[in-house]
TrEMBL record:
Organism: Thalassotalea insulae
Superkingdom to which the source organism belongs: Bacteria
NCBIfam families given in the database record: PRK05461.1
Domain ApaG, residue spans: 1-123
Transmembrane domains' residue ranges: none
This protein's name: Protein ApaG
Length: 123
């Protein structure tokens, strides 16, 4: 894993796209990836592990994020918003991004575990 990149996350519950009877709980998450290193790098792919309150797990693997494979220069950041639908009002997401630097060295950047939770569901 690479420590030159920092990943921060904010989440939101989207009640108008959720339906408790149908066990559909919709969340958005905004990711900010900041390059604190001395080299640019391009985000190539993502890996997500999504876990709901029933301990049901799913993975998402794919190229880029929101249809992009951004190059993040030193001192710069890239921000995007995406979404997730769970069968429970609480869950977690975690994973990693794969990057490549100008020297063609590939490396992973960890996405720390974060919670998705319907407001007031947790004390």
């Amino acid at each position: 894993m690479n420590d030159d990149f920092n990943v921060s996350v904010t989440t939101a519950f989207i009640p108008q796209q959720s339906n408790e009877r149908e066990q559909r709980y919709t969340f958005s998450y905004t990711i900010t990836i900041t390059n604190h290193g001395s080299k640019s790098a391009q985000l190539l792919s993502r890996y997500w592990l999504i876990t709901d309150a029933n301990d049901d797990k799913s993975t998402v693997v794919g190229e880029g994020v929101v249809g992009q494979q951004p190059v993040i220069a030193p001192g710069e950041h890239f921000e995007y918003t995406s979404g997730c639908i769970l069968k429970t009002p609480v869950g977690t997401m975690e994973g990693h991004y794969q990057f490549i630097d100008p020297d063609k060295q590939m490396f992973d950047v960890a996405i720390p575990v974060f919670r998705l939770a319907q407001p007031n569901i947790l004390n």
